[in-house]
Design a protein that fits this description.
The chain is α/β, with parallel strands linked by helices. It has one domain (4-161): Nucleotidyltransferase, domain 5 (2-Layer Sandwich), CATH 3.30.420.10. Helices cover 40% and strands 24% of the residues. It has 5 helices and 6 strands.
Amino acid sequence: MKKAINRTKGNIHIIGIDPGKSGGIARIITRDEYTIGKQEYWTAYKCPKTINEMTDILKTFKRFAIKPKCFLESVHAFPTDARSSAFKFGMNFGIWQGILSALNIEIEFITPQKWQKHFAPLPKIKKDRKNKLKQIAIEKTQIKATLNTADALCIAIYGYENTN
Protein backbone atom coordinates (compact mmCIF):
# COMPACT_ATOMS: atom_id res chain seq x y z
CA MET A 1 0.00 0.00 0.00
CA LYS A 2 2.73 2.49 -0.89
CA LYS A 3 2.67 5.34 -3.34
CA ALA A 4 5.27 8.03 -3.84
CA ILE A 5 4.34 11.66 -4.37
CA ASN A 6 6.71 14.61 -4.89
CA ARG A 7 6.63 17.30 -2.16
CA THR A 8 9.08 19.76 -0.70
CA LYS A 9 9.19 18.76 2.98
CA GLY A 10 12.41 17.54 4.65
CA ASN A 11 13.19 14.03 5.88
CA ILE A 12 10.30 13.15 8.20
CA HIS A 13 8.93 9.94 9.73
CA ILE A 14 5.45 10.37 11.25
CA ILE A 15 3.20 7.67 12.72
CA GLY A 16 -0.50 8.25 13.37
CA ILE A 17 -2.47 5.90 15.63
CA ASP A 18 -6.21 5.65 16.18
CA PRO A 19 -6.14 3.33 19.23
CA GLY A 20 -9.72 2.05 19.01
CA LYS A 21 -10.47 -1.62 18.34
CA SER A 22 -11.65 -0.65 14.86
CA GLY A 23 -8.89 1.93 14.50
CA GLY A 24 -5.61 1.75 12.69
CA ILE A 25 -2.01 2.80 12.36
CA ALA A 26 -0.54 4.86 9.53
CA ARG A 27 2.87 6.16 8.62
CA ILE A 28 4.52 8.63 6.31
CA ILE A 29 8.19 8.81 5.51
CA THR A 30 9.61 11.59 3.38
CA ARG A 31 13.11 11.28 2.05
CA ASP A 32 15.33 13.46 -0.04
CA GLU A 33 16.73 11.11 -2.68
CA TYR A 34 19.65 12.59 -4.60
CA THR A 35 18.53 11.28 -8.00
CA ILE A 36 14.75 11.46 -7.53
CA GLY A 37 14.12 14.41 -5.23
CA LYS A 38 11.80 14.40 -2.26
CA GLN A 39 9.40 11.47 -2.04
CA GLU A 40 6.51 10.51 0.28
CA TYR A 41 5.81 6.92 1.27
CA TRP A 42 2.49 6.18 2.99
CA THR A 43 1.38 2.94 4.64
CA ALA A 44 -1.70 2.10 6.70
CA TYR A 45 -2.93 -0.95 8.61
CA LYS A 46 -6.02 -1.92 10.58
CA CYS A 47 -5.42 -2.08 14.31
CA PRO A 48 -3.60 -5.36 14.94
CA LYS A 49 -5.43 -7.92 17.05
CA THR A 50 -2.53 -8.87 19.32
CA ILE A 51 0.17 -7.04 21.26
CA ASN A 52 2.84 -8.95 19.33
CA GLU A 53 1.40 -7.77 16.01
CA MET A 54 1.24 -4.17 17.32
CA THR A 55 4.88 -4.43 18.39
CA ASP A 56 5.99 -6.00 15.10
CA ILE A 57 4.51 -3.15 13.05
CA LEU A 58 6.22 -0.51 15.18
CA LYS A 59 9.54 -2.40 15.11
CA THR A 60 9.30 -2.46 11.31
CA PHE A 61 8.68 1.30 11.31
CA LYS A 62 11.75 1.84 13.52
CA ARG A 63 14.10 0.14 11.05
CA PHE A 64 14.33 3.30 8.94
CA ALA A 65 17.15 5.77 9.47
CA ILE A 66 14.74 8.64 10.16
CA LYS A 67 13.63 8.60 13.84
CA PRO A 68 9.83 8.37 14.01
CA LYS A 69 7.48 10.63 15.93
CA CYS A 70 4.05 9.24 16.81
CA PHE A 71 0.83 11.20 17.05
CA LEU A 72 -1.41 9.07 19.28
CA GLU A 73 -5.06 9.99 19.54
CA SER A 74 -5.75 10.87 23.17
CA VAL A 75 -9.14 9.41 23.88
CA HIS A 76 -11.42 8.58 26.77
CA ALA A 77 -14.55 6.53 27.31
CA PHE A 78 -17.97 8.14 27.25
CA PRO A 79 -20.65 7.57 29.91
CA THR A 80 -22.81 5.94 27.22
CA ASP A 81 -20.12 3.32 26.44
CA ALA A 82 -20.61 -0.19 27.72
CA ARG A 83 -18.17 -1.05 30.51
CA SER A 84 -16.49 -3.84 28.57
CA SER A 85 -15.97 -1.74 25.43
CA ALA A 86 -14.68 1.21 27.49
CA PHE A 87 -12.23 -1.12 29.23
CA LYS A 88 -11.01 -2.59 25.92
CA PHE A 89 -10.66 0.90 24.47
CA GLY A 90 -8.56 2.07 27.42
CA MET A 91 -6.46 -1.08 27.27
CA ASN A 92 -5.59 -0.54 23.60
CA PHE A 93 -4.63 3.07 24.34
CA GLY A 94 -2.36 1.93 27.18
CA ILE A 95 -0.82 -0.88 25.15
CA TRP A 96 0.10 1.51 22.33
CA GLN A 97 1.68 3.89 24.88
CA GLY A 98 3.68 1.08 26.45
CA ILE A 99 5.00 -0.26 23.14
CA LEU A 100 5.90 3.22 21.87
CA SER A 101 7.72 4.02 25.11
CA ALA A 102 9.56 0.68 25.14
CA LEU A 103 10.73 1.31 21.57
CA ASN A 104 11.77 4.87 22.48
CA ILE A 105 9.43 6.43 19.93
CA GLU A 106 8.48 10.02 20.73
CA ILE A 107 4.74 10.39 21.44
CA GLU A 108 2.57 13.45 20.99
CA PHE A 109 -0.97 13.03 22.29
CA ILE A 110 -3.58 14.64 20.10
CA THR A 111 -7.28 14.98 20.83
CA PRO A 112 -9.83 14.11 18.15
CA GLN A 113 -11.12 17.69 18.32
CA LYS A 114 -7.68 19.13 17.55
CA TRP A 115 -6.75 16.95 14.57
CA GLN A 116 -10.28 17.01 13.13
CA LYS A 117 -10.32 20.83 13.32
CA HIS A 118 -7.36 20.72 10.92
CA PHE A 119 -9.73 19.24 8.29
CA ALA A 120 -12.73 21.49 9.06
CA PRO A 121 -15.43 21.86 8.13
CA LEU A 122 -16.57 18.29 8.80
CA PRO A 123 -20.12 16.97 8.96
CA LYS A 124 -21.73 16.73 12.43
CA ILE A 125 -23.23 13.29 11.80
CA LYS A 126 -20.65 10.61 12.70
CA LYS A 127 -21.22 8.39 9.63
CA ASP A 128 -20.92 11.37 7.26
CA ARG A 129 -17.85 12.66 9.13
CA LYS A 130 -16.14 9.23 8.91
CA ASN A 131 -16.80 9.05 5.16
CA LYS A 132 -15.47 12.60 4.66
CA LEU A 133 -12.28 11.75 6.60
CA LYS A 134 -11.85 8.63 4.47
CA GLN A 135 -12.17 10.77 1.33
CA ILE A 136 -9.60 13.27 2.66
CA ALA A 137 -7.18 10.44 3.53
CA ILE A 138 -7.43 8.98 0.02
CA GLU A 139 -6.98 12.37 -1.66
CA LYS A 140 -3.97 13.40 0.43
CA THR A 141 -2.10 10.06 0.54
CA GLN A 142 -3.11 8.49 -2.78
CA ILE A 143 -3.43 5.07 -1.09
CA LYS A 144 -6.48 2.96 -0.32
CA ALA A 145 -8.04 4.09 2.93
CA THR A 146 -10.79 2.23 4.77
CA LEU A 147 -13.04 3.32 7.61
CA ASN A 148 -10.56 1.48 9.88
CA THR A 149 -7.49 3.34 8.62
CA ALA A 150 -8.92 6.76 7.67
CA ASP A 151 -8.59 8.32 11.13
CA ALA A 152 -5.03 7.03 11.56
CA LEU A 153 -4.12 8.41 8.13
CA CYS A 154 -5.68 11.78 8.98
CA ILE A 155 -3.81 11.85 12.31
CA ALA A 156 -0.56 11.16 10.42
CA ILE A 157 -1.46 13.86 7.87
CA TYR A 158 -2.09 16.27 10.73
CA GLY A 159 1.28 15.38 12.27
CA TYR A 160 3.07 15.71 8.95
CA GLU A 161 1.50 19.06 8.10
CA ASN A 162 2.24 20.43 11.59
CA THR A 163 5.83 19.22 11.93
CA ASN A 164 8.67 21.58 11.04
